[in-house]
Amino acid sequence: MKALKRFAKRFKRRRPKQSQTKPQATDAEPTQPLPLLAPTAQIVPESTSLSSPSDAYGAFSRLPTEIRRQILTYAFGGRTVHIDLFWRHPLVRRSASVSVSGEGLQGTSKKHCGLGEELVEDDTLPKRWQWFSCVCHRSAEAQDPQNIAFYKFETTIWPFEDKCLEGEYCHCGGSDRPGKGYGYCFLGVMGWLLACRGAYSDGMDVLFSTNTFYLSSIPLLLNMRRLISPYEVDKIKSVQLAVGKSRLFRFEKDPLVHGLWQGTAEEKRDCALPLVCSTVPNLFSNVRRLELYVQSQLCPSRDVPVDQRVSLLVRDVMDPLEDMVRCLGAGKQVVIAVSLEAHKALMQKHRELEGAAFRWEPVVGTNGAIQRHQQFWRALGSDDNGNEMGYWLRTGWNDHDIVNDPYMMNCFGGGGGSIFDLWGYYRREVTLGRSQYATNVTYED
Predict the structure, then answer these.
(1) Where is this region: Disordered (predicted)?
(2) What value does the mean pLDDT take over residues 173-184?
């Protein structure tokens, strides 16, 4: 009997632990703190004994503060930085393959950070919350716009089209930046921050106060003050938020707006848009410029009459966004972008309401050319001190189906056809005598 018990104990010790392969719950909130913007960095505990700034900072501490700040800004400031927190398989770095020309191992791919080629998800490991950060290398101009969308007729890659975290629309590594490789895609700030307390203090100040932070993870946005020091978050001056999921067809639920116009009471309560709008002012209390791109396809229920849909769009989407702008206060540069069709309907509505006071302008691309995007000013009154509050409402991603595109219809001689008129915009254009389509075009809901 004793021998049997000893055998059972040895067998139990040899069995693999079930927790190593058991999937984790995806609905759990992220709890892992930000490792200082580096994918594999370690945070120095507060109890670690470090030399005083005067001893460890060396000659750098004798430079004037303004000079030190300029040097550090040149090193890792003044950029647009992606911070990503998503539930996925861990990212692993594959060994680089030898290039066809035999020039070496490094820079065999131009994909940003090597994502999808040398930096890939390891699906043999269980999914978990994972941080990832990199410098935004979104190309200012696309050499071939058709690589972005087959209906895109412009060269500028806008922030709402950013795909740095997928390694696309960027030119990195390879012959473009010889000798730099993928290290150029990351800030490389950890060595400096861990040098001493003086370097950490100066570095964190420059890191958070001079860079523009691009965030697209709603879990990160809603839990940011738990995961990153609120003291550092308060230093952020410029933010780009791209929330929601853009797509032409609704094959899956978008947590940002699902249940906004229809659905059960529980689904409406779980809609993330109102929560995002109420979180942003408290999260970025000292922000000076905020760009918020609503990536979701805004589609109310077809049970709602067409002439009432714009009112629902204003009530359920724009009113929470405008309350957010008011909470941010005056003196802020705020840009909000919604999908093309929703923007058309809102622009038409406010043009009719405001008359001569209506302010709009085309958005200029990076090469100085006038692009197909435009924005109009939404005045929100004044604060208690008489300072004007408002924001620019800009065209976002193009949700207009290719067969409805006016350029394509003109190619066919302006003949008849049908248009998916979600907001009743094209019907009103006909009524106002401004329709760009032929008279025999029909409009569908």
Answers:
(1) 1-36
(2) 56
